[in-house]
Amino acid sequence: GAVVSQHPSRVICKSGTSVKIECRSLDFQATTMFWYRQFPKQSLMLMATSNEGSKATYEQGVEKDKFLINHASLTLSTLTVTSAHPEDSSFYICSAKSRRGVSDTQYFGPGTRLTVL
Amino acid sequence: AQSVTQLGSHVSVSEGALVLLRCNYSSSVPPYLFWYVQYPNQGLQLLLKYTSAATLVKGINGFEAEFKKSETSFHLTKPSAHMSDAAEYFCAVSGMTTDSWGKLQFGAGTQVVVTP
Fold it and tell me: Lower Cβ count inside 10 Å, N or C end of chain B?
């Protein structure tokens, strides 16, 4: 149980285009989903938190107009990287949790490797 | 604010030897602590978590961790390393403030290499 999927697993796009990444909880309802960014050989950096049916909250320094997050249902959240540039190339990972307690486990997706040419 | 520090960015162990990964936390309130493992080009998998019940927590794949309040530590151990344990390991603490509620703060990670 507690499986989270991401699609696509890998995407290459041209500079200036937009890319959408999907995160789905397959066997549970995710009240909260998180989006992380991970640079090579570094830790995960939280970008934003999204609760179903409400606007995402972004961490300091993350451009909300560039990284659009939509948590339309209890099983789906999307991250759209708008007008992507080479510096947006990274590994993007989502996670989901079924409840909002501090001790509740976050279940992670397999990640999406974005390369912007 | 809560934070975690992982000592040692790289650890090399021989197959069959003890694996010890160090994690120290900083928190003004009793923390909730997690250990995750990441294999190359994959997401994170939960190994175990401490949620203020038993201080010795057993996880998957033979790993366990002990919460020591006096030392503010949550070190991860496995008695006998296997080649499949080669991966990146992250310690994390769950946020307890209004702004950080339920968010994970990760350590820098420790890369484990297992040699035959």
Answer: C
